[in-house]
Each structure stands twice: as structure tokens, then as C-alpha cells.
């Protein structure tokens, strides 16, 4: 399968370049907006980090308190250590866990909101346009392959005949009459050049890709 990104003809190639640029710009704008939303929501991480850091600070204080507990008094030592464990269980550790949970929730929310904002408009344009561009590149590539094979095998005149009949069957009446004032007469007289040229231009192919048609032999000149 042969693909051709842009047609031979400058006007058609320019239109596709402009369309590609518009689609790329559209995609970039919405992707950037999604990124901004992600960054805005992720800025709330400061709240989660503050809660988590508060819990870590409590844990550090409790650890310092535990180290300061005298070890020579069994009942008092055990009581103070139990109090330290209780403080850590109901102050430091819950704050650290809460801060981490909030941090994870903010990240999930930021990703979901960014995707909800950016993906629908991007896919709405990119999917149909991408499908059309893929078919267009395949069709242009196939048309060029058709012309190239005909030129390489010396069957340019037969290729013109096929292109002429295809022009009659696929071009609009306005395009057909613009190509030739008498399309039916051209077919009947095997004058395929104008119709074949119109069909190649419609496909975005440079008509010069086909060798010029064979000229009819002139009758020998008789001297009087």
C-alpha cells in the first residue's frame, strides 16, 4: 500500500497543509487547556502536604517525648509510653494518612478533569479528520501507483483511456464540461487526453507523470 502525504498539485497540497495546521493547532490548544486545569487542581496539593507535614511533625514530637521518658520508674515509664502511643495513634498517624489520601484524591481529580476538558473536543475533530486524511493519502498514493505502473510498462495510452472513462463516471457535470466541451465525442473518437488530465488533476496528480500520448503517423508526402 502506497501512501502520499500531499498531492502533486500545489493548490491541493496547500489546502491540506492548511487543514493539517488548523487541526494540529486545535489539538494543541485543547491539550494546553487540559494541562492548565491539571496544574490548577494539582496546586491544591499544598493543603494535603500541609496536613501530612503536620502529622509528621506530631510523630517527631511524640518520638522526642518517648526518648525523654525516664526509664528507671516502671509504672511511670509504662504510663508515659502508653500515652505517647495513644497520641501517635490519634494525632500523628491519622493526619499523615489523611494527607496522603487527600493527595491521591487531588491527583485523580486533576487527571479526570483534564481529560474531560481536553479529550472530547480533540477527538471530535481529530477522529473524522484523521480518517479522511488516511483515506485521502491512500487514494492519492494508489492513483500515483496506477500512473507510475502505466508509465513504466509503456501503457500510458491505455491508462489515459481508463482515466477518461473514470472521469466521465465520477466527475460532476460542471467539472466534466470544464474539462472538455464534448466529453462523449472525446470518448467516441478516442481522444482521452483532456478527460484523463482532468481526472488526474482531480486526484491531485501531476499530469506530466504520464508520458505524452503517441502522435498518429502522418501519411507519406508525395512529390508532384
Structure write-up:
With 224 residues, the chain is mainly alpha-helical. The protein folds into 2 domains: 1-135; 155-207, no CATH class. Helices cover 78% and strands 0% of the residues. It has helices at 10-42, 45-68, 74-152, 156-170, 173-179, 183-188, 193-202. Helix 2 (45-68) packs antiparallel against helix 3, helix 3 crosses helix 4 (156-170) and helix 4 (156-170) crosses helix 7 (193-202). The longest helix is centred in the middle third of the chain and has 79 residues, at 74-152. The two termini are 60 Å apart.
Key phrases:
mainly alpha, single chain, 2 domains, 224 residues
Q: Which outline best applies?
A: rod-shaped
Class from secondary-structure proportions: mainly alpha
Mean pLDDT: 82
Alpha carbon gap, first and last residue = 60 Å
Strand content: under 5%
Number of domains: 2
- Helical fraction equals over 70%
Poorly predicted spans: 215-219
Helix count, per DSSP? 7
| Major pleated sheet | none
Number of E-type strands: 0
Radius of gyration: 38 Å
Order of helices and strands: HHHHHHH
Briefly, what is this?
The protein has 224 residues and is mostly helical. Helices cover 78% and strands 0% of the residues.
Topology:
Blueprint: H1 10-42, H2 45-68, H3 74-152, H4 156-170, H5 173-179, H6 183-188, H7 193-202
Amino acid at each position: 500500500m502506497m501512501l502520499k502525504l500531499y498531492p502533486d498539485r500545489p493548490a491541493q497540497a496547500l489546502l491540506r497543509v492548511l487543514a493539517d495546521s488548523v487541526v494540529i493547532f486545535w489539538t494543541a490548544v485543547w491539550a494546553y487547556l487540559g494541562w492548565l486545569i491539571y496544574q490548577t487542581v494539582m496546586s491544591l496539593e499544598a493543603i494535603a502536604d500541609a496536613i501530612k507535614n503536620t502529622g509528621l511533625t506530631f510523630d517527631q514530637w511524640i518520638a522526642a517525648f518517648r526518648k525523654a521518658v525516664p526509664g528507671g520508674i516502671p509504672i511511670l515509664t509504662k504510663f508515659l509510653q502508653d500515652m505517647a502511643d495513644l497520641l501517635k495513634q490519634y494525632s500523628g498517624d491519622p493526619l499523615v494518612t489523611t494527607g496522603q489520601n487527600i493527595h491521591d484524591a487531588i491527583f485523580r481529580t486533576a487527571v479526570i478533569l483534564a481529560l474531560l476538558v481536553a479529550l472530547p473536543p480533540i477527538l471530535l475533530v481529530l477522529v473524522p479528520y484523521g480518517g479522511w486524511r488516511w483515506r485521502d493519502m491512500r487514494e492519492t498514493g494508489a492513483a500515483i501507483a496506477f500512473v507510475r505502473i502505466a508509465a513504466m510498462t509503456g501503457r500510458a495510452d491505455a491508462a489515459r483511456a481508463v482515466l477518461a472513462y473514470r472521469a466521465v463516471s465520477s466527475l460532476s457535470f460542471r467539472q466534466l464540461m470544464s474539462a472538455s466541451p464534448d466529453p462523449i465525442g472525446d470518448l467516441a473518437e478516442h481522444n482521452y487526453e483532456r478527460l484523463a488530465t482532468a481526472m488526474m488533476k482531480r486526484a491531485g496528480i501531476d499530469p506530466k507523470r504520464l508520458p505524452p500520448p503517441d502522435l498518429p503517423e502522418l501519411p507519406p508526402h508525395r512529390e508532384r
